Amino acid sequence: MTAARAALMQRLSTIGWREAAPVIGAAVAFGILFWQPMVTLGRDWWNDPEAGHGLLLAPLAAFLAWKRGWATDGHGQRTDARGQPVLGIAILVGAVLLRYVSGLAAELFIMRASLLGAGIGLVVFLGGVRQLIHWWLPTTLLALSIPLPAVVLGSLALPLQLKASQLGAAMLELRHVPVRVAGNVIHLPGQSLFVTEACSGLRSLTALLALGVLIGGLWLKSVPGRALIVFSAIPVAMALNGVRIFLTGFFAYFVSPSLAEGIMHYSEGWAMFVVAFVLLGLISWGTAAVEGRVLARRAA
Length: 300
Fold this sequence. Notes:
Blueprint: H1 3-13, H2 17-33, H3 35-47, H4 54-68, H5 85-105, H6 108-134, H7 136-144, H8 150-174, E1 180-182, E2 185-188, E3 191-194, H9 202-219, H10 223-254, H11 263-299
Antiparallel strand pairs: 1-2, 2-3
Helix pairs in contact: 3-6, 4-7, 5-6, 6-7, 7-9, 8-10, 9-10, 9-11, 10-11
């Protein structure tokens, strides 16, 4: 346990009811105001496959915030950066207004964004912007755990479906498989493969972006290095989804049409995600090696 965390625990053990009452009141008010977005968010994490990554990201963000603790100096002591009550209250007021407006319009995404905004306001109120910067990784993971609106998901899924269909068909042609593409449908002799929204690669892209943020935040030091690993997730996800469609068509044409669905189809998806994980790991390893050389030269 760090000195700062030990001091915090000692401080908490000496807090009396008079000091605790405002904190308890604020927690109750927060729960009442944001109960609906919290419940609907948890329900979507549990029931919606497109939002299931939140079940992992939210607890991980909480753990990372607890692990990092308060911003400290090089000696483990909390810095003299203080809370910014005025700015924090302004953010909280904005979040509450956003919560009210989104409730009137029944807009879940904005309602959930107001929940995140209220949390940011509390952090700024207690620890200032410096503390928010110190917790940038948990905050980013929480933001990524909020499901996008259905209209946005639909507008993203369709181009990904078309691109994945084109990539898969191109690979099949390289293997001399007679193929014709019509939108998101790949026509093979005697059968057709439909690249549905679930096969667009959007789920794997979302998961890989979150994984890139996590890897960059934990193992890389520079902003360009972190940006590289995050943006690398996009072509990796798209390319491997094209490979998945190629394998589906290849096995359906040369082996059996039944291999285009069922357990084989889902197994290909999991296998491609493992390959994507390995590729991101290799990219981050190479980026970390470059960072180490650059830092060594600067130190010399």
